[in-house]
Amino acid sequence: MPSVTRVVLAEDEVLLREGLVGLLTRFGFAVAAAVGSAPELLDAVRTHRPDLVVTDIRMPPEHRDDGLRAAVTLRAERPDLAVVVLSQHVQSGYAAALLDSGDGRRVGYLLKDRVADVAEFADTLRRVAVGGTAVDPDVVRHLLRRPRDPLGALSRREREVLGLVAEGHSNGAIAARLHVTEAAVGKHVGNILAKLDLPPDDDTNRRVLAVLAYLRGSG
Known about the structure:
This protein is α/β, with parallel strands linked by helices. It has helices at residues 14-26, 38-48, 66-77, 92-99, 118-129, 137-144, 156-166, 171-178, 182-195, 204-218, and strands at 6-10, 30-35, 52-56, 82-87, 107-111, 133-135. It folds into 2 domains: 6-135, Rossmann fold; 146-218, Arc Repressor Mutant, subunit A. Helix content is 51%, strand content 14%. Helix 5 (118-129) links the parallel strand 5 (107-111) and strand 6 (133-135). The longest helix has 15 residues, at 204-218.
């Protein structure tokens, strides 16, 4: 990764697009292009070869999931391309499609209305750009509430820990939230992965991807 993250931004609302350009520039990103439609997004990424794409899901020309479909296409062409999609609503199918693209890393699914701290938003983009995963907690909770529950073997505490793991929190952060020791969280995570027949792994991003992959496959 270069020291400055190069971004292509796709957002059809002009005021929001210009606001995001200003925000990204303010936090040290280099905006290579800012476009307003899915075809323009495809062209801009292929021309500028950025490190990160930030795109709305609903884009012209069809104003449906054009932005997402463009992002998935680009990830098929460049599995190492970091992509963060922005949405107005929880749509777990869209999140699954994005997480299934490329190698499953360097992806984010954020709800626009829940971005309340611009510095935190910028940090999330940086985390995704270097290989992380960021899934909005509401999307995680939606996945955890599926009618056919693949998590029946987990205890209530293990479900709670799993939700926090899937949001991208480290063991230390989970311990602080739940007021338990980090060792206790590590034990819970090991039990969760064992019960889900997933190999234990200390890498937070891989744990998130493994958990979400299991949820998608069992829904």
